[in-house]
Specification:
With 452 residues, the chain is an all-alpha fold. It is built from 19 helices and no strands. It is globular, with a radius of gyration of 22 Å. The chain starts with a helix and ends in a 9-residue tail after the last helix.
């Protein structure tokens, strides 16, 4: 236990110093901590094994294609029509702009996987709409930011791909398909979306919020007529995974065999993103955006967002192999078992720890680095490993964008809404508390989860 804590302590100190004090990118901080742990642990002789392990992880390339897809969808604005339709449907009810922010931002966040990026994309529409409806500026910022953060835990976010890689690596005998894992992730996400809708309802009552102004509500017929093609995109992305979940053991296995059905399931992560991207390029109105030169320019301009994401995951997978050699997971598991925290204790303590770590460490890197350890520890305490893996993006990624002082999604939303920073932080605490309590309840298995 002591050795495991020492290694984790070294890693965290290096990351905090390099990222928070030296103010270098987080992927550099993770790489520096990897180099130092190689030295401290005396594992330089295995360094190329760790590099090969990271590069040979097929899910790393799945994440790459989903990141590329999200950039293309953001560039073509193909999803904007879905936001307009949600506004047309819900804008007339009391607090409708808030409900639109929850649903639209959750959906968009799932496609982009970026809390702050999603805030800037959808928040430019939803925050002004909320403010016009009577939402306090601080509340509008928090509704948008906390909803955008949910994208980290909703497929097809790239963080979900990392979590899937953990559960399939640890429990290959369970033969967990991509569709199965996605269904469980959606099952968990629905409770957190419901929580935000309930909180919006409560705050609407408190602040006597009104429906949106009629002139700000899009015409439903017009938006559907102009944007129905964009509404087909979610079906293109989600339906294959639903089919995989419901028919893998019957239809696909009977025709392809167990091995064929297994590899068909894993291949969905590669070609669905490509099909969705091709569809977006076909239906986009401004064809200039999808010319080869324009696409090349788009990806060139977004290299600064692509490279760090992939680098974090690569170094994270390398860390996983190093931690295995250093017996970090075994040491932590033995130590926590000796503390006799039990299932309840783990479910209470671990989300608090990841919440604190999330202040300085990016959620996706936490999933990759700490995910195998957390799944193993929770399994030993009696928590379903599949549930733990599905909740990793939640307890590692969602909170890291919500908790000040860094909280990039919170800061991005506040920059759009304005208002009093102190009031915004105080209101944010209600959302953080609600998020934390629900995380504990879900991990304890007190709620029914779709797919489990």
């Amino acid at each position: 236990m002591e050795t495991a804590l020492l290694y984790l302590g070294i890693m965290l100190v290096v990351i905090l110093v390099w990222f928070a004090l030296v103010k270098r990118p987080i992927y550099e901080a993770i790489f520096m901590s990897f180099i130092i742990l190689l030295t401290v642990g005396g594992k330089w002789g295995n360094v190329w094994t760790y590099v090969y392990s990271g590069l040979s992880t097929s899910l790393l390339y799945s994440m790459t294609v989903f990141v590329a897809m999200s950039i293309l969808l953001t560039k073509t604005k193909i999803i904007d029509s879905a936001i307009e339709i949600i506004l047309a449907l819900l804008g007339r009810i009391t607090g409708g702009a808030g409900y639109v922010a929850v649903l639209a931002s959750s959906f968009m966040g799932a496609l982009s996987g970026s809390g702050p990026g999603n805030v800037m994309a959808t928040g430019s529409i939803t925050i002004p709409a909320m403010k016009k409806s009577g939402f306090p500026k601080e509340l509008a910022a928090n509704i948008e930011s906390t909803s955008s953060c949910l994208g980290n835990m909703i497929p097809p976010s790239s963080t979900i791909v990392a979590a899937l890689g953990i559960i399939t690596a640890l429990y290959p005998e369970r033969d967990i398909s991509t569709g199965k894992f996605w269904i469980v992730c959606w099952g968990c996400s629905l409770w957190f979306i419901l929580l935000r809708l309930i909180m919006v309802f409560i705050f609407c009552k408190k602040y006597k919020v009104q429906p949106m102004a009629k002139e700000d509500i899009p015409d439903l017929k017009k938006t559907v007529k102009e944007g129905w093609r964009g509404l087909l995109l979610p079906f293109i992305i989600f339906v294959p995974f639903l089919l995989d979940y419901f028919f893998k053991s019957t239809f696909f296995t009977a025709r392809l065999g167990a091995t064929g059905a297994k590899y068909m399931s894993s291949s969905l992560l590669y070609f669905i993103a490509g099909i969705a991207s091709i569809y977006a390029m076909i239906v986009v109105k401004d064809k200039k955006q999808v010319k080869l030169t324009a696409i090349a320019k788009t990806f060139g301009e977004n290299l600064k967002s692509i490279v760090p994401t992939i680098a974090i995951c690569l170094f994270g997978y390398m860390f996983g192999s190093l931690f295995t050699d250093l017996d970090v997971a075994t040491g932590l598991e033995a130590g926590l078992n000796a503390m006799s925290l039990g299932k309840l204790g783990l479910c209470i303590i671990v989300p608090l720890i990841t919440c604190v770590l999330g202040i300085a460490i990016v959620g996706s890197s936490m999933v990759v680095v700490f995910g195998p350890i957390l799944v193993t520890i929770f399994a030993a305490a009696g928590v379903d490993p599949l549930l733990t893996a599905a909740m990793l993006p939640c307890i590692c990624g969602v909170m890291s964008n919500m908790v000040p002082p860094i909280a990039p999604a919170f800061l991005a939303a506040f920059s759009l809404s304005g208002g009093d920073f102190g009031k915004a932080v105080k209101n944010d605490m209600w959302w953080i508390i609600g998020q934390y309590v629900l995380e504990v309840i879900v991990l304890l298995g007190w709620l029914p989860i779709l797919g489990l």
